[in-house]
């Protein structure tokens, strides 16, 4: 039995443990492995959100930013429109006999969803950036990668962003038995609940790799509503599109990672995020909160 206590871990543990725990894992931790082509299991009441846009932060959890335009200017990003009001009814059907697998949200609106995986890089500047910009995003975290500093993610969560399940140790789940998959998925759900006080509702399999047992396992944990894949993945400077026309489509889910200079050829996470948001702005989209739609 492990008793989890909600208290920040001293930062000085970070460096040592990072080298130990993350070094080996990370080489293989990239999520940009096999990626799903297409979303299934999501049924839309077509049209999606219709409430008139209310300015502010989509989820209504984070306090409004006093000067949004100035914040975007400061980070060198064109001003993105605030997210539209969340739909009254979530367009992805959940709670059925089989957990849905989703890589795009059914919507007509020019919105995309940003997700950050694993949790390796813990750059304080990224926290500053998100505190300024209030872009909604979802974190899919792996225990083996974040346990050297659970505290890093709390201010990001406090901004209204959800912490979701990405397994205990980041295996390719297709190589594991049903019981092992249950342990990886349900175990991380319990761990995250203990650390962050909220039970994850979404699950992303490492590398986007899953099989029928994964769906059974995720369903069996209780509380997981959907398996979330992606349509685009963020590289250092560019977005990798599944669409050969290199365009976003309404409701696309974008995969990015908590990565820093050692994985980004010397570039920082905030530069990567800036590049991603610039592309989203260039194509006339804005970012909405995934949990408002699933
Ligand atoms: Zn991952």
What is the class in the CATH system?
Answer: Alpha Beta
In CATH terms, what is the architecture?
Answer: Alpha-Beta Barrel
**What's the story with the biggest beta sheet?**
7 strands, mixed
**Low-pLDDT segments:** 1-30, 32-60
Count of folded domains? 1
Instruction: Indicate the CATH topology.
Output: TIM Barrel
CATH homologous superfamily heading: Glycoside hydrolase/deacetylase
Helix content: 25-40%
SSE run: HHEEHEHHEHEHEEEEHE
**Mean of all residue-level pLDDT scores:** 84
Per DSSP, the total helix count is 8
Small molecules bound in the structure, each named once: zinc ion
What's the overall geometry? globular
Protein name: Peptidoglycan/xylan/chitin deacetylase, PgdA/CDA1 family
Region (Disordered): 31-65
Keywords: Signal
GO molecular function: hydrolase activity, acting on carbon-nitrogen (but not peptide) bonds
Structural commentary:
- Mean pLDDT is 84; it is low at 1-30 and 32-60.
- The protein has a single domain (12-292), classed as Alpha-Beta Barrel (TIM Barrel), CATH 3.20.20.
- Helix 6 (178-196) packs parallel to helix 7.
- The radius of gyration is 18 Å and the shape is globular.
- It is an alpha/beta fold and 294 residues long.
- A hairpin with a 4-residue loop joins strand 7 and strand 8 (239-241).
- The protein has helices at residues 12-27, 68-74, 124-133, 143-146, 154-158, 178-196, 212-221, 269-282, and strands at residues 101-102, 111-118, 138-141, 162-165, 202-203, 226-228, 232-234, 239-241, 253-257, 286-288.
- Bound molecules: zinc ion.
- Residues 29, 31, 117-118, 166, 170, 206 line the site of zinc ion.
């Amino acid at each position: 039995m492990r008793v989890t206590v909600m208290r920040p871990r001293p930062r000085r543990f970070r460096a040592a443990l990072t080298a130990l725990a993350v070094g080996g894992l990370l080489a293989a931790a990239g999520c940009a492995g096999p990626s799903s082509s297409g979303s299934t299991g999501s049924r839309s009441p077509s049209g999606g959100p219709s409430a008139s846009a209310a300015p502010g932060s989509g989820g209504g959890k984070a306090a409004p930013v006093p000067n949004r335009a100035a914040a975007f200017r400061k980070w060198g990003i064109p001003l993105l429109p605030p997210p539209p009001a969340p739909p009254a009814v979530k367009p992805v059907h959940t709670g059925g006999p089989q957990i849905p697998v989703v890589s795009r949200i059914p919507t007509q609106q020019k919105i995309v969803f940003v997700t950050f995986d694993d949790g390796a890089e813990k750059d304080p500047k990224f926290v500053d950036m998100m505190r300024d910009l209030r872009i909604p995003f979802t974190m899919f975290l792996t225990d083996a990668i974040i346990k050297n500093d659970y505290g890093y993610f709390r201010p990001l969560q406090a901004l209204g962003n959800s912490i979701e399940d990405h397994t205990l140790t980041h295996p390719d789940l297709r190589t594991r038995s049903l019981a092992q998959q249950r342990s990886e998925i349900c175990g991380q759900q319990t761990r995250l609940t203990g650390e962050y006080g909220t039970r994850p509702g979404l699950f992303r399999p490492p590398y986007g790799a899953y099989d029928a047992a994964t769906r059974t396992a995720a369903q069996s944990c209780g509380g997981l509503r959907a398996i979330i894949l992606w349509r685009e993945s963020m590289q250092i400077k560019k977005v990798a599109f599944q669409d050969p026309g290199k365009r976003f489509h309404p409701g696309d889910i974008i995969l990015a990672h908590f990565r820093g200079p050692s994985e980004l050829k010397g570039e920082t996470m905030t530069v990567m995020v800036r590049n991603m948001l610039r592309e989203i702005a260039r194509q006339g989209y804005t970012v909405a909160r995934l949990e408002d739609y699933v």
